[in-house]
Write a structure and sequence with these properties.
Elements (H helix, E strand, L loop, with lengths): L1 E11 L6 H11 L2 E9 L4 E11 L8 H13 L7 E12 L12
Antiparallel strand pairs: 1-3, 1-4, 2-3
Length: 107
């Protein structure tokens, strides 16, 4: 398993989801997460989060850039179906055996 630390931007509308719904989903699917910003407008909501998640190791990936191509798909599978993923960027990636999981505020 690979431990990924990164930042993601998520978009959703108020008529189908609330921030509480998304937060509960992330609580159950991610190792840790923290909401950095939440912007509301008439068109919907945009949330930026910092996260730590686990994903399966890919035998053909050697660098963080290789894994970034898989990260968007893997992270979007975590979100509710009515939630859109704008962007996701990993800034640290390690095997879970090589590093103990840190608290989100230590990152």
């Amino acid at each position: 398993m690979i431990q990924v630390t990164g930042v993601a931007e998520i978009a959703f509308t108020n008529n189908k989801l609330t921030l509480k719904d998304i937060n509960e989903r992330l609580d159950t699917r991610l190792v840790r997460h923290s909401i950095l910003t939440h912007n509301q407008s008439k068109q919907g909501n945009k949330v930026t989060i910092k996260f730590i998640m686990k994903m399966a190791a890919k035998p053909n990936c050697k660098t963080i850039d290789d894994y970034n191509s898989y990260l968007f798909h893997d992270f979007s599978q975590i979100l509710p179906i009515d939630c859109g993923l704008i962007s996701v960027v990993a800034y640290d990636m390690r095997t879970t055996e090589s590093m103990p999981i840190k608290h989100i505020n230590e990152l």
